[in-house]
Amino acid sequence: MEKNYRKWIDLGLGLAAIALWFLLRQLFQQVWEIFRLPLMENFFIQTPGLISLLITVVAFILVRRSLKIYGFLNEVAIELAKVTWPTSQETIASTGVILVMVGIASMIMFGFDALWGTFTRSLLSL
Predict the structure, then answer these.
(1) Contacts for 57 with CB less than 8 Å, ≥ 6 apart
(2) Pseudo-torsion of CA 64, 67, 69, 71, nearest 10°?
């Protein structure tokens, strides 16, 4: 029997709605500044913020009511529950290995760059 992850899906959709509102508000504020459109100064929220809020609320409601999207997100949550997440020790060890490998790769790239730079300078000085 599959578990229902309704509260986690709603939390994720809510966070996505907040992020969408923030991005749309920034976008519309830029558009308002570029085209010098009038603002409602005496209103508690300016026009770009109001438009982005309306778009975000409509998008949230449409996604929340769509059975296909909600079912897909529930399946994603079920699959994520099956994932074996690494322990903090495994994460620290993996991070250390990655840092060492990036350092080694950086040194190799530096060596090739210095060699190629020397070769190029010697060719251009002929």
Answers:
(1) 17
(2) 110
Cβ-in-10-Å burial (0-12, 13-18, 19+) of 52 comes to: buried
CB 8 within 8 A of CB 73: no
Its pTM stands at 0.66
Q: Which helix (H) or strand (E) holds 51?
A: helix 47-65
Spatial separation of the C-alpha atoms in residues 25 and 47, rounded to whole Å: 9
End-to-end C-alpha distance for the chain, whole angstroms: 77
29-70: pLDDT as tens digits:
898 888 887 777 777 778 888 899 999 999 999 999 999 999
User: CA 66 to CA 58: how far, in whole Å?
Assistant: 12
Read off the tokens for 115.
């060699």
* Residue-level length of the chain: 126
Work out the burial of residue 105: count CB atoms within 10 Å of its CB; fewer than 13 is exposed, 13-18 middle, 19 or more buried. Answer: exposed
